[in-house]
Amino acid sequence: MTPDALSEAYDFLLDINVKGSFFGAKAALEELQKTNGNIIFSVSGASFYPDGGGVWYKASKHAQIGLMRQLAFELAPNIRVNAVAPGGTLTALSVIPPLHPFVKIVDNDTKASSIKKRNPLQIAQMPEDHVAAYVLLASDEARAITGEVISSDGGLSVRGLGY
């Protein structure tokens, strides 16, 4: 792997996951201030555990957690900022070219089997499995929650990856 390929993958992931989150929050800030709204970032189980997505993905997701917590601090008391950390989820997304050298590509059947083996609920999550976490954080029922992450990971967070 060349230094240029490493740098390209780094820029790509940090631009999407960190800069994208920051500039999305910044773009919405004026309207959020008017409505006492809230921000919900999508982070990842990779924000907490090794093995999954590669080194730059992992770093970008850790950075998103730091960004979320700092914004929760700076925007309080009028705007709440939280995150949802989905665990392994079956989607139609695929690895994009700058990341091919850094990430092992597997088909959805293999991915589903791996996800089921890792989490205590033994389910391969689908995107709709995470909806309730976002709805809760967006609701007034969560008015006392800011700077927090809901792990929607089939229970992986109670086991970790070191089992």
UniProtKB/TrEMBL annotation:
Family matches, as InterPro entries: NAD(P)-bd_dom_sf (IPR036291), SDR_fam (IPR002347)
Key words of the record: Oxidoreductase
Sequence intervals crossing the membrane: none
Annotated Gene3D superfamilies: NAD(P)-binding Rossmann-like Domain
GO terms assigned for molecular function: oxidoreductase activity
Family label: Belongs to the short-chain dehydrogenases/reductases (SDR) family.
Protein name: Short-chain dehydrogenase/reductase SDR
Lineage, highest ranks first: Bacteria, Bacillati, Bacillota, Bacilli, Bacillales
